Amino acid sequence: MNKKVEHPIRKVMIICAKANLEDVYAALVMANGAVMEGIEAKVFFTFFGLDAITKKRMKNLHTATVGNPGMRMPNGMAFPTLLGAMPGVEAGVSAMMRSQMDKLDIPPVDEFLDLITAGGGEIYACKLAVEMFKLKKEDFTEHVKDIITIGQFYELAAGEGTQIIFT
Amino acid sequence: MTQRTYAGIAVDVNDEGYFTQSSVWTPEIAKAVATEEGIDLTDRHIAVLNFIREKTAKGEALSLRSIGKSGIVDAKQFYELFPGAPLKKASRIAGIAKPSSCV
């Protein structure tokens, strides 16, 4: 007799180490999606990912227009590297992406963090990276619950049904 | 498809318990579904459910964000009213299909 045993995910620990718009959003969408499903979610921002929770930078995240093979012109043609390198192009493309996302009801970073924390999701900054970039607690958005070590991160991950996800 | 009886009325639901026809919905039926979800419906709940139903009737996509901006509740209050998986629970109680939104 085979009895189907279910192993639901109870907690996700999401690590975001990059500042690209798409990498940050991958982490935020997954965290918010988890909270919406009643799954506990904790997001750990480290290295360049700290930009997403740094007050001065979080509203102006960019997607790379150089060195990004997925980048296309609006007509589907390849995006010329030299065009991507011109001043203002990366900012313009990033602004366009943000407006496209807004149309799909994907909120800006600060509002997304509002939604995640409203549902009980928690936001953490990596202590090592914070020291490396010489940042302070007050440089971060108020959504950040704490600045923690990787050891504390693993302590928070403890329990059955936890998944650790690196975006 | 199965049938369940809520507030004395037989309702067609799918395997996950979502209504297949939202037109049969009444606030009394909602109260019975909510009890199943462990929620005691208040006027505040009903206001949110009506908002969800109106938005769905207009063919607009439902998202946590849009409910948070409804002016009825903010996101945090929405989580408090329908604890756990708010969008799914509220959709089931509102007698509409399972939400397909990612945000």
Which topology of chain A does CATH recognise?
Hypothetical Protein Ychn, Chain: A
Helicity range of chain B: 40-55%
Q: What count of helical segments of chain B does DSSP give? A: 5
* Count of DSSP H/I helices of chain A: 6
Count the beta strands of chain B.
2
Question: Helices and strands of chain A: which structural class?
Answer: alpha/beta
Q: Which word captures the global form of chain A?
A: globular
- Overall geometry of chain B comes to globular
Oligomer: heterodimer
Q: Looking at this structure, what is the CATH superfamily of chain A? A: DsrEFH-like
The CATH class of chain A is identified as Alpha Beta
Compute the gyration radius of chain B: what is it? 13 Å
Give the distance, in angstroms, between the N- and C-terminal Cα atoms of chain B: 28 Å
Q: Count of DSSP E strands of chain A? A: 5
- State Rg of chain A: 18 Å
Number of domains of chain A: 1
- Strand line-up of the largest beta sheet of chain B: 1-2
Question: What's the arrangement of strands in the largest beta sheet of chain A?
Answer: 4-3-2-1-5
Write up what this structure looks like.
The complex is a heterodimer of chains A (167) and B (103). In chain A, strands 4-3-2-1-5 form a 5-stranded parallel sheet, with helices on both faces. Chain A has one domain (11-166): DsrEFH-like (Hypothetical Protein Ychn, Chain: A), CATH 3.40.1260. Chain A has 6 helices and 5 strands. Helix content of chain A is 36%, strand content 16%. The mean pLDDT of chain A is 95. With 103 residues, chain B is mainly alpha-helical. In chain B, 44% of the residues lie in helices and 10% in strands. Chain B starts with a strand and ends in a 10-residue tail after the last helix. The mean pLDDT of chain B is 94. The chains are: A alpha/beta (167), B mainly alpha (103).
Topology, element by element:
The complex is a heterodimer of chains A (167) and B (103).
Chain A: E1 11-16, H1 21-36, E2 40-45, H2 81-85, H3 89-103, H4 109-118, E3 122-126, H5 127-132, E4 144-148, H6 150-157, E5 162-166
Parallel strand pairs in A: 1-2, 1-5, 2-3, 3-4
Helix pairs in contact in A: 1-4
Chain B: E1 2-6, E2 9-13, H1 27-36, H2 43-57, H3 64-68, H4 75-81, H5 86-93
Antiparallel strand pairs in B: 1-2
